[in-house]
Amino acid sequence: MKRRTFLSSTGSFVGAGLLSTGIASATGDDPLTSVEVRTDEHNVSHLYSDDLYDLVFANGYVQARDRLFEMDVLRHVGYGNSAEVIGEAQLQSDIEVRRDLYDKEEITRQYENASEQTQRLLEAFADGVNRKMVEMGATAQLPGEFTALTHAPEPWKPEDSIAVLSYMIGRFGVGGGMELDNARTLARLKRSFEDDREAYEAFGDLNWLRIRDDHYTSIPEEDLTVDGGEDALPYDDVPDEQLRYVDAALGAQPWGIEEEFSLDEWLSRDAKGVMEGFKFGSNALIVDGEHTETGKPMLGGGPQMGYFKPPVIHQVGLHGAGFDVTGVGVVGTPGVIIGRTPKFAWTVTSGRDDQIDTIAVDLHPDDKHRYKWYDEWHEMTTETVKHRASIPASIVNGDPDVRIVEQEVARIEEDGAVMPVVAWNPDERIAWCQRTTTRYEELEGAFMWATLGQRNDLAEFKDQLSEFPFTFNFHYVDEEDIAFIHTGKVPDRNESLDHRLPAPGAAHEWRGMQVGLGLGTHYTNPSQGYVVNWNNGPCAGWRAGDKPLNWGSIHRAELLDQYTQQALKDGPLSLKDVEEIIDSVSIHDAAASYTVPTLIEAGQNSDDRRLQSMAAELEAWKQTNYKWHGENARYDSGGMAIWEETRRELQSLVFSDELGEQTPSLTFEPPQARHAADHGNAEQDIVLVDAVAGRTTHTWFEDVEERDLSTAGRKRRQSATVREALRRAGTTLEERYGSADPADWQLDVRQSPFRSLGGSTQTSIDMINRATYNQAIAMGEGLDSSKHVLVPSNTGHLSFGEVLSTRISGDEPARLTEQLEEYVNFDYIPHPYTREQVERLAVEKRTLQTAKTSLNDPIQPSGTLPDSVKQGIVGKIQTDGNESEG
């Protein structure tokens, strides 16, 4: 383990003077009730009460015990004011949250408009959090990060949970919104080609709207095919007005931000700042009883949500008041979103439906806040927001002048929809806004999901999701059935438009809506007897959406299917077989198999001996099915280095003349919080593989200026390009390793670094493509066949003294990584689901009284940070695990 930053987004540890202790008192207006809390050796608590308020109160209490600082960070991220707490590196996140999501007044209205029961549950959770905050404050045991940041946490409010879930599900539980980026790609292609029609055809090789015929779908085609409803238009059918907005896209810039403040990837909906690396991505395997040794269904896999320390999900068991469920919930919110009951189990992967439309409007020549809608001028609503960065964090990061960034938030309101303005072209007087199908539905949707543990069977489970609007794949098993349920909320769009591109305001319309089970993308007990999913398409015919390269001809799900089929050839599966399938896809490259054979062929057919040797080394790696294996800190095959370097060269040789600066870069070293970077996803190889196979419209291996469209000419050019990429890679690798023998070109074992959400040390593990939370469950087989693991631990609490000790010595409490060893060894901890099992595993039992705490002011942290310690910590700014002087 390496020492690292205090908060990874700030790149620094902020030390300052301390605030005084403040203690709030508990009220005794209501008779005391209680919850039984049983906690196991891994700090996973199971809560027992027949009263729903008490149960959710205890949910908030134990979550605050384990994750209070993380909860506080997430609520500020959700409100879009996190820079005020953890520094200027959060400014981009805050700007995007305030642009795309909600202000405090909108969040309050969502709470006020919620059902009485939803309000009561949010209040109960908040009451439990505040009770624990009071206890911590009274004993000077608030998380030490509050003292270090001179930040006194405010009482938790019901609205705080809405802020968290709005960010988590509202930003990452929807797909789409890529139209402006797509328009910029097409505009650049038009500059590369003399013929606009040819540029449009090349654009079609990158983005296809409907699932490709050869794409692997989770539901077999013979079981289900649907009509996705959207196809790419022929060039001549694209409206001239839509193409006009394409040309303007190159001049697009962020709306409402001063030019001197630079936004990175401001059109993407990826997490930024402290949450960078977070996503909803996952793999899953469910198998029916006819294909298992026990005769009952099994489940393996889980959500890939990034490597955070502590994770952004929290293990808990809820028992009573209609619940009997154990699993994980989202930090800052109540409930369980993935887990099991005595009757069924489920896991979730990302659905990736297109639920956001980007709309282009013309602006008034004299007033940028007036826009044309159906030939009439309308007025935007605007608000000025001032983002104030934490002064101590800004100073430590070496930019004391960064204090306030001013943002104008603008909204277009039409047809009952509120649409944030995201960009504009001031010269062309055009603006772009975005309409989302799920706006203001986050709270209701989140509670549909978080209360799945109250259901009793498949019928009730599906009924609960019948109108679930967010885009996910639910994988369900009970003792009889398996089911795959793809959900979302997708509009029926105007067929006269190309929906990869921004829609003109005058032509945009939603003619209907498909929601939840209404999408028709669900199936029970498929004919093949199992389901695998790794964020791939649900079924044949469904829409791929506007995201480039989404659900194309190749996909990493094929690797998961490959290992499943291999295991089934040997007979019915044991739970160990299911575990080993998930393990295998975690340490075998998901992308290399699609391009390495082409490289081998090119090397073998070359007269260049170095290329022949490189081909032999690639062949040896191929025989391992592209396994990541190494001893003494290096991978044992040079094939991996050859493939990486050759793919980089091919990316430039094949695509740069058409795409220029938009040529996608390849990332093979996992960034912080990401699992396996481009080793874990085949998406970046789709167009290259299609071009090799002759499935593209544009001949990508040909220079734009020098075209030979004959079949023989294309093959010659393709072979020559691949050989040239191999030569360049060979030259680079020979120089890098100081050896002409490709067997010596052994990469250092890739590391997957965790992002610390607090004062913990840097943790890194050997690169692995395993889910953040894993389950392995054989239904009806007892505790030995019910397992799960959450990396690195279920607890993230550090006292102030532990923060100081960790900063000085580099050592931290073992509880912060107590499930890490199981995780890296592909092992699990018990996943109890009955009271008898919980009692057997519990190492602590307590009775929690649920009297509401009167807490109106922030809890003041206490402690002392010596100047010598402060200077020693502040003097080292560490970024991504690498120390540098600051």
From TrEMBL:
Q: Which Gene Ontology molecular-function terms are recorded?
A: hydrolase activity, acting on carbon-nitrogen (but not peptide) bonds, in linear amides
Concerning InterPro entries, the annotation shows: Ntn_hydrolases_N, Pen/GL7ACA/AHL_acylase, Penicillin_amidase_A-knob, Penicillin_amidase_dom1, Penicillin_amidase_N_B-knob, S45
Task: Kindly indicate whether the keyword Hydrolase belongs to this entry.
Answer: yes
One Pfam family in the UniProt entry: Penicil_amidase
| Biological-process GO terms, alphabetical | antibiotic biosynthetic process
Polar residues biased stretches: 854-865
Q: Which domain of life is it from?
A: Archaea
Annotated region (Disordered), positions in chain: 854-886
SUPFAM superfamilies membership: N-terminal nucleophile aminohydrolases (Ntn hydrolases)
Assigned keywords, A-Z: Hydrolase, Plasmid, Zymogen
Q: What PANTHER family has UniProt attached to this entry? A: ACYL-HOMOSERINE LACTONE ACYLASE QUIP, PEPTIDASE S45 PENICILLIN AMIDASE
The record's family statement is:
Belongs to the peptidase S45 family.
| Protein name according to UniProt | Penicillin acylase family protein
